[in-house]
Structures are given as C-alpha cells and as structure tokens.
C-alpha cells in the first residue's frame, strides 16, 4: 500500500517525470529566491538567522516564506531549481499520502480505511487550490502535519526519550508556515 501511495503522485503529475517545469506563479515567485538563498547559506556553513541583504535587515526565522525549518527547502541548495521544483511536487503529495496512511494505521484504522483516508487527504481541494505546491509553505506544512500527528501518537503509545526527540523534531517541521498553523 505504501509503495502504491508513493508511486501515485508520479501518475498524477507526469510533467515531473518528463522534466517539464512545475507550475510556479503568484506569491510563489516571491518565495523562491528566499528559499534558494536560505538553502545555499546553510550549505555554505552559515545558519540563516538574519539577513542584512534584505531591506535594512530581516529576521529569517520569523518569516515563513524563507522556509528555514522546512526540510524540503534544503533540496534547493543541492539540485538544479527546475528539477527540485518537480521533485518537491512529488514529495509533498507522497509525504501527505504516506504520512496520513501511517497516522491512520497507528490510530487503529484498517489498511483499506487508511488508504482511503490518505487519498482523501492528499488529493483534497486544499492541495489542489495551492497551484504553487513546490514551494508553498502552507501546502508543505499540511503535507507534514500527518507525520507530526503520527509522531505524537507514536510517543503516546510508549513514551521514551527517542520518541520524544522524534516528536520534537516533527514539531519543528510545522515551523514551515507558523503563521498558518
């Protein structure tokens, strides 16, 4: 089931496999340079708390557009931008699908019910309404939310320091778009 859910975005978004450009428009065009800058600064060894280059200086942690805590952002610092945008489209949907499936399974829902829940969540109107999925902080936070819920549920089933660290890390991921949470 998980393999099918991870493969489903490849079927739904064939442009990403062909290497065509992902749809990025509107506010996303403003977000993209911030995220590329953050990713490149991290890989250069500089953790981007502050940027003196923007206006008269800007706190990058407080501005959700930069995606400092977003695990998806760092791909922009490693790979070519067009390729990364296509991969991010696939990753966001795959994360939403597999995260929802795992969360539902941990909650005690059967395989078929978990599969239906994952399909309904990942292909809901919310995700379709965010055409700039590759770098949309709200869509990425929504894709990561089931992973965070699963981490907390996992922690609640059998508390321990390793599981608490996993839940804390997952909570940081919601910092992708803190204003929208």
Overall spatial form: globular
Task: State the strand order across the main sheet.
Answer: 1-2
Q: Would you count the extended β strands for me?
A: 2
Into which percent range does the helicity of residues fall?
A: 55-70%
Rounded to the nearest angstrom, the distance between the terminal CA atoms is 29 Å
Biggest sheet overview: 2 strands, antiparallel
Give the helices and strands as they follow along the chain.
Answer: HHHEEHHHHH
Q: Which stretches are low in confidence, meaning pLDDT under 50 for 5 or more residues running?
A: none
Average of pLDDT = 79
Radius of gyration: 17 Å
Structural class: mainly alpha
Helical segment count: 8
Q: Estimate what percentage of residues fall within beta strands.
A: under 5%
SSE topology:
Blueprint: H1 2-12, H2 14-18, H3 28-43, E1 50-51, E2 58-59, H4 81-107, H5 111-122, H6 125-129, H7 137-157, H8 161-173
Antiparallel strand pairs: 1-2
Helix pairs in contact: 1-4, 4-5, 4-7, 7-8
Describe the protein.
With 181 residues, the chain is an all-alpha fold. A two-stranded antiparallel sheet has the order 1-2. The protein starts with a helix and ends in an 8-residue tail after the last helix. The chain contains 8 helices and 2 strands; from the N terminus they run αααββααααα. 61% of the residues lie in helices and 2% in strands.
Report a brief summary of the structure.
This protein is an all-alpha fold and 181 residues long. Helices cover 61% and strands 2% of the residues. The model has no long low-confidence stretch (mean pLDDT 79).
């Amino acid at each position: 089931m998980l393999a099918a859910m991870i493969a489903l975005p490849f079927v739904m978004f064939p442009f990403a496999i062909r290497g065509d450009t992902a749809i990025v428009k509107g506010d996303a065009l403003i977000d993209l340079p911030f995220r590329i800058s953050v990713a490149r600064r991290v890989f250069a060894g500089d953790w981007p708390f502050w940027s003196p280059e923007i206006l008269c200086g800007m706190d990058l942690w407080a501005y959700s557009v930069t995606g400092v805590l977003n695990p998806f952002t760092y791909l922009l610092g490693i790979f070519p931008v067009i390729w990364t945008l296509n991969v991010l489209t696939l990753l966001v949907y795959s994360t939403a699908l597999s995260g929802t499936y795992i969360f539902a399974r941990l909650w005690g829902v059967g395989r078929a019910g978990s599969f239906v829940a994952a399909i309904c969540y990942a292909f809901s109107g919310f995700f379709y309404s965010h055409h700039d999925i590759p770098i949309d902080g709200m869509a990425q936070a929504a894709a990561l939310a089931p992973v965070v819920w699963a981490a907390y549920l996992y922690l609640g089933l059998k508390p321990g320091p390793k599981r608490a660290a996993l839940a804390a890390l997952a909570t940081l991921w919601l910092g992708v778009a803190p204003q929208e949470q």
